[in-house]
Amino acid sequence: MKSMAQHIITQKLKQLTIQDIKTYSTKYGITVSDKEAAQIVGELKSTSYNPLKTEDRMKMLKRLGKITSPQTAQKVNRILHQLAKEHGVENWLK
């Protein structure tokens, strides 16, 4: 089940739009500018990181921190954790 979920999550990340990022950020009370959202979407579409694997997630967040800012990478991490919590799979991000 977890491997299927990993595949679905990875595919979903590649399909996120700027508006999706903005919607999630608003939902979770995290300020993300349009420019940051565009940079996040661009990075997610161009990589194959598995956010459920700690090593991959840290690589992804470091890369996002370099192309946007460390604060934006922290925002993305908070959004990922909020989404995982909402869907009852927060233990997968440990």
Summarize the structure in words.
This protein has 94 residues and is mainly α. It has one domain (2-93). Helix content is 72%, strand content 0%. It has helices spanning 2-15, 18-27, 34-46, 54-67, 70-86. Helix 3 (34-46) crosses helix 4 (54-67). The model has no long low-confidence stretch (mean pLDDT 86).
Question: What are the SSEs and their pairings?
Answer:
Elements: H1 2-15, H2 18-27, H3 34-46, H4 54-67, H5 70-86
Protein name: DUF2624 family protein
Organism: Thalassobacillus hwangdonensis
InterPro entries: DUF2624
Structural class: mainly alpha
The gross shape turns out to be: globular
Determine the number of helices (DSSP H or I, runs of at least 4 residues).
Answer: 5
Q: Kindly state the percentage of residues in helix.
A: over 70%
Q: Low-confidence spans: pLDDT under 50, at least 5 residues? A: none
How are helices and strands ordered from N to C? HHHHH
- Domain count: the total is 1
